[in-house]
Amino acid sequence: MRVSLNWVKDFVDISGISVEEIAEKLTMSGLEVEGIERKERAEGVVTAKVVSKEKHPNADKLSVCMVDDGRSLYQVVCGAKNVDAGQTIPFARVGAKLPGGVVIKDAKLRGVESKGMICSAAELGLEEESDGIMILSADTQIGIDINEIIKTDDVILELNVTPNRADCLSILGVAREISILFDRDLKIGEVKVDDASEEACNYRYVKVLNETNCPIYLGRIIKGVNIGESPLWIQNRLRSAGMRPINNIVDITNYVMLEYGQPLHAFDLRMVEGGIIVRDAAEGEKIVTLDGKERALSKDMLVIADEKKVLAVAGIMGGEYSGIQTDTSDVFLECAYFKPESIRMTARRLGMKTDSSYRYERGIDRVQTLKMVDYAAELIKKYAGGMILKGVLKNDYKEFVPNRFKFNAKKVAEYIGVEISEGDVLKILKKVGISIEGNDTAVSPSYRQDIERWQDLSEEVARIYGYDKIPVTVPKIYAKSDEESLLQKLIREIKYMLADLGYNEVINYSFMSGEYLKRFADETEFVKVKNPISADMDTMRTLVFPGILKNITLNYKNGIRKLKLFEVANVHMVNKKDKLPIEITKLSFVVMGDFFRNSWIGRLEDDLFYYIKSTCQGIFDRYKLNADYRAGAERFLHPGKNADIFINGEKIGFIGEVHPEMYQFLDLEEPIYICEIDLQALKDKVGEAKKIYKKLSQYPFVYKDIALIVGRDLPSSKIYEYILNFSELIKDVEIFDRYSGDKIGEGYVSLAFRIYFNHLEKTLTDEETNEIVQKIIIGVEKEFGAKLR
Predict the structure, then answer these.
(1) For 88-144, how does the pLDDT look when each residue is reduced to its tens digit (9 = 90+)?
(2) What is the largest CA-CA distance in the chain?
(3) What is the DSSP secondary-structure string of 641-681?
(4) Where are the alpha helices (DSSP H) in 536-607?
């Protein structure tokens, strides 16, 4: 938020305090000052009058103007569409230096000499962009240094206001903080309304149908206004806050919002039929908002309507056809308090973020609404003319009841960890606006909705006392801590293992876009977030790897083609037996690209499927678990390069290459392999596993090779398990070759197995091992239809 110190001076005297001191104190008290902007002066720019305007003889879009600065007449070529004779404007003489370092020189434009330049607000450093020249008030004296008009002696603070400090989203709020920190008086003026005898209730009415979401709704009617530009001092203050002036009515509503933090909205009274009705929208009801976009509303969104149509989305943005027009003469001025949760939900669902919604979402001071509608009405009367009709149109709202809670001054100080006397604690609390009833009851001010309990008082005391005054201490750490669970131990060990293998850990949000997630998961299992941070974070993830794929996509777009990433996270799925969702801890690791190094002996080629499988197998080997890989059917995986992972007959995960169709969706070209494992299921298997210690044989191993012809669809793991468990003398089995071709026959493959034999008490002979091999051949033929090749 941009804060003008010249504006702050309206509320608090800051003389004798440097800008740097203010920035330091605000930052240390919790209002971080991210930047200090000192406005540049314009040198050699004065106020002047356009005496005449003629069409440029050689250019359709240029004008030749005669400009009088009170000292001389100058011929100036101007390209602005809004320049005209009789205007008072900022004029840069030849030799003038504008903010940004631009120096004005003699020029000849399309054959016509130009002695200076008529300036826009952007050229004077007041705006980022301008549509035309800056037009000053007609009664502005000419020949005056422009810096006196646009107040370039200002300093702008760029503040980062935390969500809990809604009271600081205004000039008054920041001034209040400065007054507290520097022990200066805060000056807040009174508002008096000079209204007419004509009753406002004779023209319109206000009816609130949903007082839960709109506890307070006030309206003032101002008749006979003249739409035009607002005074230059208001324009300058709006520009200092980063807001462009529009017209006097809209500028005044924005001015009051920036000054006091109270959003307001002005309706053209002609467009309000019957009266103002604050209600819930009908399902599917539509409105074209001021930004020209049509919005479809839902029944839980609050709207401002009349008897026939929707006029505005409450607290967010007005309708395109009910706003202030150039010919508006009568105004309905809205000032309300809306429930923060309602505005937050509507703004996020509609994808709208406005200055008004930003303040309503965080909570405004509901007590000042009446004062603000009167203040804005008086400003409109003063700078747009017209008369304020008698009476405020309003609902029958309830008076604000402040938050009261018990506290103990000594306990508040102890909670901070420093010695502060009870008297100093009470003094600080009173400075920040806390009323003390008796000695043990605190009453929060209406503008500090974040102060709810005595612990909040400790925070207030600490930040005003000074965080920098609190000594640094080493917290007590007890040598004995709780023993980690088996799952925690498993996660820690696996993380270290993957890091040792060159994988990098990533941490993603637990929620993501439902539209994105349904590419990989079953939508019926989705747990939807009722109040999402944004539209692309509306669903709790049911799988971990989709988030890693987003990390890979981001890296890929930044030129990184080789990646190994992993994440351990909880996933959530709908629980059909309970309201609470199912929560499971999962591990996912993903490999992208051919990261094998090139070598002088040639490029090392390998299939990443077997690489990522070896990583997976390494985890299982660490915990002495036998994994079974079976052909899988996950729709997001390559149909020929994926497998489900089973341990003791239970599926605990899957592995494979991303489906070819997914590469286009992800906008990637490098091969990507993923593995996802249910760590809670793995933990159970590790817990069930028993360590068995066996005597090592001192006799040599003997191995025999056999090649079997089997059906192509038969999983090799079945024969592998059959052979491995055939005899106690068989200690290990390897598949070392696979062949298919004409010699084997269509629909068949040849698998070569190496069988390792060992005996604890003797060296095995060929006769003994051959006998076992013969029995194996007979057995596999009977069980699987396999034949010796």
Answers:
(1) 999 999 999 999 889 999 999 999 999 999 999 999 988 888 889 999 988 899 999
(2) 122
(3) EEEEEEETTEEEEEEEEEPHHHHHHHT--S-EEEEEEEHHH
(4) 545-557
pLDDT of residue 480: 66
Q: How far apart are CA 193 and CA 212, in angstroms?
A: 30
Which percentage of the chain shows pLDDT scores above 90? 76
Q: Which long-range contacts (CB under 8 A, 24 or more apart) does 482-485 make?
A: none
Burial classification of residue 719, based on how many CB atoms lie within 10 Å of its CB (0-12 exposed, 13-18 middle, 19 or more buried): buried
| Residue that the structure tokens 């002695």 belong to | 115
Burial of 213 (0-12, 13-18, 19+ CB in 10 A): buried
**Cα 551 to Cα 546: distance, rounded to the nearest angstrom:** 9
DSSP 536: G
Beta-carbon count within 10 A of 531 CB:
10
> Residues 724, 732: contact at Cβ < 8 Å?
yes
What are the structure tokens assigned to 500, written together?
A: 């040792």
pLDDT at 447: 94
Tokens of 474: 């080493």
Q: Which residues contact 415 (CB under 8 A, 6 or more apart)?
A: 455, 458
Integer CA distances (angstroms), 207 to 216, 274, 304, 305, in order:
11, 11, 10, 10
Q: Taking a C-beta distance cutoff of 8 angstroms, is the pair 67, 84 a contact? A: no
Which 3-state string (H, E, C) describes 383-422?
Answer: HHCCEEEECCEECCCCCCCCCEEECCHHHHHHHHCCCCCH
Q: How far apart are CA 375 and CA 243, in angstroms?
A: 20
Q: Is 79 helix (H, G, I), strand (E, B) or coil?
A: coil
Question: Residue 595: pLDDT band by 50, 70, 90 thresholds?
Answer: low
Q: Report the candidate in 206, 235, 236, 203 with the shortest Cα–Cα distance to residue 219.
A: 206
User: Cα separation of 569 and 546, whole Å?
Assistant: 12
DSSP annotation string for 494-517: HHHHHHHTT-EE----SEE-HHHH
Rg (the chain; Cα; Å): 38
CB atoms within 10 A of CB 689: 14
